[in-house]
Amino acid sequence: MTGRVYRLHSTLELPLEDVTSYFESDPELPPEIADVDITRRNNTLIIKAVSTDNNLSKYTPTAQLKASVTETRVYEEEPPRAGGPQWVQDEEEEIPSELVEFACFKGDRETVLQNSALQYPMFLVLREIALQTEKGNLTAITEEDGDLVATRIVEGEERPATVEVVESPRQSGAEGNGVNWRDNKFIS
Asked: Residue 175, Cα to own-chain centre: how many angstroms?
């Protein structure tokens, strides 16, 4: 299978524990990927593709997914809001909560999906992760076997998406809107 990723935007957030358990469950990876290496450096999670192709140079960086890791307090119940009845504020009952680490795959293609070798197969891995999330979106335009494919996943659910080709705003009416540097009387 051949493919290419043209555009990608992600706002995916899921518990770090869910990401690690997903890969520990031995998911079905694309045929070009033998395995993934998961590394954590401070507050950054890097999931790097390991190629099945022995001809790929060991110095060629394979595609990797990059996520920031943040801690978020998760409440078992919703905390009371300000402006509620006075008698609720007098009790000051503590709501049970815990700190949970989240992997946040946020940004465009160069931020989330890095390096070009095995980029499309690694996009397919990100797509599977997106189907596991409850928070965030993944939108992409890819090419698969010569056809453009639009992908849109919202909060773990695949939604309809289309690719629309429009005329570039730079091509339409560019003559009258910009500065003509060659015939500018202020530049000698």
From this structure: 37
Q: Are 161 and 142 in contact (CB under 8 A)?
A: no
d(CA 9, CA 109): 6
Given a contact cutoff of 8 angstroms between Cβ atoms, the answer to whether 4 and 57 are in contact is no
Q: What does the buried/exposed string (b/e) look like for 90-129 if buried means 16 or more CB atoms within 10 Å of the residue's CB?
A: eeeeeeeeeeeebbbbbbebeebbbeebbbbbbbbbbeeb
User: Element (H or E) spanning 176, and its range?
Assistant: helix 174-177
DSSP label at residue 62: B
Q: Which residues pair with 117 in a beta bridge?
A: 62
| Residues 106/68, Cβ–Cβ less than 8 Å | yes
pTM for this prediction: 0.77
Between CA 172 and CA 181, with CA 175 as vertex, the angle to 5 degrees is: 140
Kindly report, residue by residue over 124-170, the tens digit of the pLDDT: 999 999 999 989 999 999 999 889 999 999 999 999 999 887 876 65
